[in-house]
Write a structure and sequence with these properties.
Layout (H helix, E strand, L loop, with lengths): L2 H21 L3 H5 L6 H6 L8 E5 L5 H9 L4 E6 L2 H11 L6 E5 L15 E7 L8 H10 L1 E12 L7 H12 L9 H12 L2 E7 L4 E7 L9
Parallel strand pairs: 1-2, 1-4, 2-3, 4-5
Antiparallel strand pairs: 5-7, 6-7
GO molecular function: methyltransferase activity
Protein name: S-adenosylmethionine-diacylgycerolhomoserine-N-methyltransferase
Pfam families: Methyltransf_25
């Protein structure tokens, strides 16, 4: 990692810690009112016992906890740039008897080896790309970390194209206070990279474009029998 990239990482980590140092205690209670589509994205994981699930920008661990209850036996991993958020996530899991491995790091430049695995069967990014400056690099890095047959599941703010202009403007002004920027170019970018890599893509809009859900699927390896 170059010194410039290291400085950017440190600056963003400090920003996220400042934003969430206090908010982490009320995060789950408040975000349920406007982070739509998270639970349907979890249901869409369609994972099996023994498979690996990584959440990028895992925050308080809320999504990983729900995923573990819906799909018992998952091997859980979480990455977040905010150490304050990870402190809350670890505390959430501690009394449950469930195990999750949490790593403090940058979603734009991680590797499965950091978690001690060769790849992940499922990777989830829930309302994090709108907070990560280099969100495109995060998508590429996530795709590189998928095991054959694995899938990347994204839920985040959409372009609000079919909602009233006043609502779209007000929402974005409010989100900006929390350093959140909807990625209007996300779907075209996903379409382009999936064409380039031969990946499957499913996109659904929620609430008139308020949010989007996307699933990118990597094909299984083909074994040739002689």
């Amino acid at each position: 990692m170059s010194s410039e990239n290291t400085a950017e990482h440190v600056d963003h980590a400090r920003l996220m810690d400042r934003v969430y140092r206090g908010q982490r205690h009320i995060y789950d209670a408040t975000r349920k009112y406007y982070l739509f589509g998270r639970d349907s994205a979890i249901a869409g994981l369609e994972a099996s016992a023994g498979q690996t699930l990584l959440e990028l920008g895992c925050g308080t661990g809320r999504n990983l906890m729900l995923a573990s209850r819906r799909f018992p036996g998952l091997r859980l991993y979480g990455l977040d740039i905010s150490r304050a958020m990870l402190e809350t996530a670890r505390a959430k899991f501690a009394p449950t008897g469930l195990h999750a491995s949490f790593v403090a790091g940058d979603a734009t430049r991680f590797t499965p080896a950091e978690f001690g695995v060769p790849g992940f069967d499922r990777i989830m990014i829930s309302y994090a790309l709108s907070m990560i400056p280099d969100w495109r690099a995060t998508i590429v890095t996530a795709l590189d970390a998928l095991s054959p047959g694995g899938s990347l599941h994204i839920v985040d703010f959409g372009d609000q194209a079919h909602l009233p202009r006043w609502f779209r403007s007000g929402l974005r002004t409010w989100l900006k206070k929390f350093h959140v920027t909807p990625r209007d170019e996300m779907v075209p970018y996903l379409e382009a990279i999936c064409r380039e890599r031969g990946l499957g893509l499913t996109v659904r809009t929620l609430g008139g474009g308020y949010a989007i859900r996307a699933i990118v699927e990597r094909k299984p390896s083909v074994n040739h029998l002689l």
